[in-house]
Amino acid sequence: MNNASTKYSGGSPKSSYIIGLILSIILTIIPFAMVMQTSTNKNSLIALLVIFAVAQIVVHLVYFLHLDSSFEQRWNLIALVFSVIIIAILMCGSLWIMSHLNYNLMSQLVSLDIND
């Protein structure tokens, strides 16, 4: 086994997992408290939740999967970016198809109601 593939970015592996766990807990508690307060605007709350979700994804990638920009991790990073692009294409394409189906089918139902 290559010794370079077993290295961790910061200190011992346990410290990396502990830091990741603490950050994950913090990034979970703060949005939960924001949702429970319900004193903020709905649109700003959704934006903040998305920001915290992206931050938590980054924490998981860095501290638990040990994905960084080092040379050894470059192919893993490329595979991750490719997967994200494919998922985005599938999601956007599905939403686009569903919205066009909804528009085309609903216009036929409305025209049927008018003729009755």
3D architecture notes:
- By secondary structure, the protein is mostly helical.
- It folds into two domains: 70 residues; 44 residues.
- Helices cover 78% and strands 0% of the residues.
- It contains three helices and no strands.
- Helix 1 packs antiparallel against helix 2.
- It is flat.
- The relative contact order is 0.08.
- The N terminus is likely disordered.
* Category by helix and strand content: mainly alpha
Helical segment count: 3
Mean of pLDDT:
83
Net shape = flat
Instruction: Name the poorly predicted regions.
Output: 1-6
| Cα Rg | 22 Å
Give the termini distance in whole angstroms.
Answer: 74 Å
Helix content: over 70%
What does the main sheet amount to? none
| Annotation, overall tally of beta strands | 0
Number of domains: 2
- What percentage of amino acids are in beta strands? under 5%
List SSEs in N-to-C order.
Answer: HHH
